[in-house]
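In the present case, backbone shapes were mapped to integers, as reproduced here:
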Amino acid sequence: MTQAQERRPRLVVVGNGMAGARTVEEIIDRVGPDRYDITMFGTEPYGNYNRILLSNVLSGAEEEDGIFLNSLPWYQENGITLRAGMTVTRIDGFAKAVHAADGTATPYDKLVIATGSVPFVPPIDGAHHPRRGFHQGVFTFRTLDDTRAMIRYARDHQRAVVIGGGLLGLEAARGLQQYGVSVTLLHAAGHLMNAQLDATGGDILRRSVERLGIDVVTKARTERILGKDNVEGVRLADGRTFAADMVVIAAGIRPNTALAQASGLPVERGIVVDDQLRVLDEPDVYAVGECVQHRGQTYGLVAPLWEQAKVLAGHLTGTDPTAAYHGSRTATKLKVAGVDVASMGVTAPERDDDEFVVFAEPRRGVYKSVVVRDDRLIGATLIGDVSKVGFLMQAFDRGSPLPEERVRLLFDLGGPPAEVSAAELADDAQVCNCNGVSKGALVATVTGGVRTLTGVMDATRAGKGCGSCKTLVAQIVEWAAGGEVEADPAANWYVPGVPMDKPTLMAEIRARGLRSVSAVFDALADGQEDAKSKMGLVSLLRMMWGDEYVDERGARFINDRVHANIQRDGTFSVVPQMKGGCTTPAQLRRIADVAEKHQVPLVKLTGGQRIDLLGIRKEDLPKVWADLDMPSGYAYGKSFRTVKTCVGSEFCRFGLGDSTALGIAIEERFQGLEAPGKLKLAVTGCPRNCAEAYVKDLGVVAIEGGRWEIYVGGAAGAHVRKGDLLATVDTPAEVMALTGRFLQYYRENANWLERTYAFVPRVGIERLRELIVEDSDGLGPGLDERLAASVAAYRDPWRERDAPVTPGQFRTALPLLPLPAVPVRAGGQP
């Protein structure tokens, strides 16, 4: 160390979270890294990450690497001594030093406390184990390690109870669903997010959350966690019980003041600070973030944290010695469990003359309200439709004039277009709350040369949190670039984690002989695995390699791992194959016997002319398949599923062709084929279209003269589209040939998850006729050959009942129903 460095004042920051690291970033931005000799302590053994994005990690939408704000090299590059994984136990204000758990003492000239917050765990019997801390199967949701533990546990368990219906609890519940876990959310208050929403808004949010398959119970005060060695459920104060094999406590946070209290600093609800974030009566000790109490207020949102960091940095660097923090007007705009929510200020009128404008459309999950006092916006709540949030946040934050017609606060009634709204935003208007990105920062990035939306988002991290601001970010980027936003190359990638379009990716896979997902990541993505890319790669590799594909079960979605469709309660549905919708009395008797033997809760006819057995436990799947002794109907995967048929010419007096026989033949040949999206087909015996062939991915219609029409690109689900006529042919053999070529061309050229109703218009029916029917480019023989190889590789996946691929493939799970209470004798012995 040089003498010059030794003379630098020593700045110690206790806390390597968002507030502490942001303060250091602000200091370096103002005066560079050499003003202070900086030491940072963090209890977690990592660099600095965005805690808000832990819900994205839990849901699988984001990899861990993607949430880090500052990696370890950043600390080195800025000369910061990072003591990661080290807890500070005491502050010696007289000696001006902090003492760490390893016995070391680090002197300071200026000290910043940024210890953040800790999870609030209400008193619940059974939550803690006397030797292990929290009971096995009980989690809080605050850190990266918490998130990892929840993911590991959720993968092998089926029912979770989440305690807490605030933002964190809702995100935890939604995230756990991605692992096939059935989730019940318990909330002590009368409605969800009661700190941000009024009762009507909370009830509408509840409906939206329940539509996602999450059971919500309000006025539910958890009294006890059941189970001695493993979690078996929870019991409420009113005596109700809920079965569960894991419990997540997400009941809020509290300022982490333990260090300050142990060191004799003033603490009330938080560490008491003045307008310069200075701890009272401590001229060289400051506090910032969720651990502080300023003018009686504590904050749990990120926006106040950013504001505090700026004030403190201005004060510590002397670049703005008059900087003062006067509190924050809290406004939040987030995507909560997939639902857009924005809230600011009060949720209801407080005075008789307050104006209160409300719009509610519960069926669509939309709720809007504003509270106006003295022509100023003092509160707003938006659920489901947040299109006006930009204007409302600006009006709320700056006291902007409001329209005379208050309804214009909620709706655009001939108002200015979005581009004008983006232009009118002030430069310091915060666009991304999750990462504290202002409009000015976005504009500066664009004017600095970044001209793609993804590039701006990567550079600023705007839109990388909950994602609710992406539309506004795109509008600002478009406006700042003068309408000259460049095309985003990533938009053409087949999967987000491998930077190649589909033809290039397939060529590289073939040239390098890559037969597994991990091999693709190693060779084409610098070894960086991407969870969101795995399903698409599995499908692609299985399509390309057939029997030669190297299976890695961890890359598969739960449905593909167990060959059944997971339901909202964590059970599965079983749909055996019925070719062409035909069955026999013997099959029906067998299905009935299986339903009775396994006490199947629901037997249901499907829209694809099959029978669905619903409510099968994962561990029972092999036994059900064995008793059925029928092949899988593939009702769960992105693959060829079924061929719906009418009775055709054999029985119907209007029938013009044997649709049943042709449908069965098509299903027998192409059963189970992997595809970018699911494939539903139909064959109908006349244009009356009883089998709905016009609205299938591929539909065949018998017409006069013994001929057949082939339609492609139809849909009748959330998207409705009549298929385009691909060809009219004379024989069933020609139908089989063209169907095979179309399916293979679609498999090789469609984007991941692109259904035929989007693929066909994109390519164009005329071009498809040239390629498939006329074989203008000579692709036919190759398509036929590769399709034949895939057909030959077909194996009924339900045969895995005899030899599970992995030991845990059908692992026995805990019972789904509440267990009878076991009396406990004195001394804890049953």
